[in-house]
Amino acid sequence: MKETRISNITAETRATSTPAGVDNSLLIVGMPIVFDQPTTINDPAGSYTEIIRRGALDDCDLSDTRLLYNHDLSKIPLAKTPKTMQFKLDPVGLMMIATLPDTEEARSVHTAVKRGDLSGMSFAFKVPAGGDRYDPATNTREILKIEKVYEVSILPFPAYPQTSVEARAAIQATGTDQVKEAITIMANKILFKGEK
């Protein structure tokens, strides 16, 4: 199932290290995925900590990934791998370099990034079966494997993480067991007090 993550990652313009033949006037550089950094995911079912482990992108399909503004699939993408957007894995995470088209929307996005009005990035991805694990004791989900990154987005409001039904379902099932256990313990305490 497709999931979306939002984080406060800086996107910036850069006039250096441009690939040969690429116009750097509308170049965007950012890091949409960061490894081994705990992030709080807020969800209607409750919040939990999520960590994308280094190595999660090994063998990940990045061949047909789009750059969007605010996950808006109804608009023309701002860039696409491999021609107008490239990714580079480094020890910190996944770095993105994209050349935006010379359109009014792309120029507006570029200007807002350059001014610092847009500074967040997000990504939509798929975790394969067995590609993550959840520890109810620490309320932490570790993502060990990402099968595909569908798109990365530049965002105006990066502070509100969103999760998919897949993540909620896994944690809700565990949460239900914890609630049942807490109710049983509370009932036993009440019964124990009544015996005195």
Topology:
Layout: E1 2-7, E2 11-12, E3 27-34, E4 39-41, E5 48-52, E6 66-69, E7 79-80, E8 85-89, E9 93-99, H1 104-115, E10 120-126, E11 132-135, E12 140-143, E13 148-155, H2 165-195
Parallel strand pairs: 5-12, 6-13
Antiparallel strand pairs: 1-10, 2-3, 3-9, 4-5, 6-7, 8-9, 10-13, 11-12
Describe the structure in your own words.
- This protein has helices spanning 104-115, 165-195, and strands spanning 2-7, 11-12, 27-34, 39-41, 48-52, 66-69, 79-80, 85-89, 93-99, 120-126, 132-135, 140-143, 148-155.
- It is of the alpha+beta class and 196 residues long.
- It has one domain.
Query: What assembly state would you assign to the polypeptide chains in this entry?
Result: single chain
Side-by-side strand order of the widest sheet: 1-10-13-6-7
Query: Can you tell me the residue ranges where pLDDT is under 50 for at least 5 consecutive residues?
Result: 8-16, 159-172
What does the radius of gyration come to? 21 Å
The biggest sheet amounts to: 5 strands, mixed
Please tell me the total number of domains: 1
Question: What percent of the residues sit in helical stretches (DSSP H or I)?
Answer: 10-25%
Distance between the termini: 53 Å
What's the helix count? 2
Shape: globular
- List SSEs in N-to-C order: EEEEEEEEEHEEEEH
Mean pLDDT: 77
Please provide the count of β strands.
13
Our estimate of the beta-strand percent is 25-35%
Class based on secondary structure composition and strand pairing: alpha+beta
